[in-house]
Amino acid sequence: MLRRLTLKMLVHRTRHPMVQIFRSLLGSFGATLIDYGVLLMLIEVIRMNEVSAGSISMLAGLTFAYLAGRYWVFPAVPRGYRRIEFACFTIIASAGIALHVGILWYATYRLNLHYLAAKAIALSLVFCWNFTARRLVHSILITLQARANARCG
Q1: Considering the entire predicted model, what is its pTM?
Q2: Is 28 exposed, middle or buried (0-12, 13-18, 19+ CB in 10 A)?
């Protein structure tokens, strides 16, 4: 039973929202490690300012998050809709970056929080935005494919 649960949670394709949230959290954890690693390197080693470094590090994490989401969290996007999915991801990610930068700037410069605390707040809020928006897009694409199949079949 544990093996079956492990396979369901980590391996098999699924549209179950709790499994997708779990996988998205794991993927986001990996993206966060990348994000924070790049952030620390840019600020502590290269001495870049916090907002610029935070934006660049988020792009590195976002690349990982896209790949994890595309191949593991929401893998069932119909083949004919992958360009639309990527365009939607780009729009969602762009809004997420704007939200992230705004939160990071406000928390760092207005609330005078340490950049790592500001980053944690920004990442948490942007995770909620990204997951909700990507799940909605994924559901719409699956529905469009089902309608197209019904018309053809």
Answers
A1: 0.71
A2: buried
pLDDT at 8: 67
- Residue 55 structure tokens: 């934006």
| CB 31 within 8 Å of CB 61 | yes
Tokens of 146: 């089902």
For 27, the token pair is 């993927």
Residue with tokens 């992958």: 82
Q: Work out the angle between the directed axes of helices 17-40 and 115-152 (0-180°, nearest 10).
A: 140
Q: Which of 5, 137, 148 lies closest to 76 in space, CA to CA?
A: 137
Reading the block at residue 72, the tokens are 């593991």
Measured distance CA(69)–CA(27) in Å, rounded: 7
Buried b (16+ CB within 10 A) or exposed e, 42-71: bbeeeebebbebbbbbbebbbebbbebbbe
